[in-house]
Design goal:
heterodimer; A: 126 residues; mainly beta; 11 strands; B: 110 residues; 9 strands; 45% strand; globular
């Protein structure tokens, strides 16, 4: 059964870079049927898509975060990573990793988020 | 302010039918598929409906989705206490070139 596990520091200082990794188990990250994404949820608020990546390295980012976000993939480790620079209090959230799925290779927006990790909490504080 | 508008709350009694709306516009719901997610307290979102009205394996047929023009709705029939959760709609926005979510609707089973 496919499992996604997010991990990384739970506390990050303001102005520093948040770094998280998502390990995929129970399936290969290298499939034309999948993209892999990051979504976050501030305390008591709704969901916000951060960005997504294909196993080839092709990326799509939320335009409001694009200048601060880098998502990368390591197919040898079946992992994707998130880096968010110059963090502030507003970046405090639960960060989720999710799989995007499509029946066959197609445009990115046809790949929908179908499996989610349990999430990891990141607090930005000095 | 979310691109997709959902009522912040909804409620019903066991056995009732409840609907949750999701209002968008031409660049998003108007031209793209809608997805619904259920988030039980303290857990990650779970896919409930895909491509407007399809249910993943394991999702009860009490849950149904529909779309008309720039709006969509999620209906839950035979309401049960375990349906108490937050529900989010999502779609792709052609103008923003990104995935967008509704603000979420907290469903209370009275």
């Amino acid at each position: 059964q496919l499992q996604l596990q997010e991990w990384g520091p739970g506390l990050v200082k303001p102005s520093e870079t948040l770094s998280l990794t998502c390990t995929v188990s129970g399936g290969s990250i290298s499939s034309s049927s999948y993209y892999w994404g990051w979504i976050r949820q501030p305390p008591g608020k709704g969901l916000e898509w951060i960005g997504s990546i294909y196993y080839s390295g092709s990326t799509y980012y939320n335009s409001s975060l694009k200048s601060r976000v880098t998502i990368s993939v390591d197919t040898s480790k079946n992992q994707i990573s998130l880096k968010l620079s110059s963090v502030t209090d507003a970046d405090t959230a639960v960060y989720y990793c999710a799989r995007h799925y499509a029946e066959r290779e197609t445009v990115f927006y046809a790949y929908y988020m179908d499996v989610w990790g349990k999430g990891t909490t990141v607090t930005v504080s000095s | 302010q979310s691109v997709l508008t959902q009522p912040p709350s909804a409620s019903g009694t066991p056995g009732q039918r409840v609907t949750i709306s999701c209002s968008g516009s031409s660049p998003n719901i108007g031209v793209n598929y809608v997805y619904w997610y259920q988030q039980l307290p303290g857990t990650a979102p779970k896919l409930l409906i895909y491509t407007n009205n399809q249910r993943p394996s394991g999702v009860p047929d009490r849950f149904s989705g529909s779309k008309s023009g720039p709006s969509a709705s999620l209906a839950i029939s035979g309401l049960r206490s375990e349906d108490e959760a937050d529900y989010y709609c999502a779609t792709w926005d052609d103008s923003l070139s990104g995935w967008v979510f509704g603000g979420g609707t907290k469903l209370t089973v009275l």
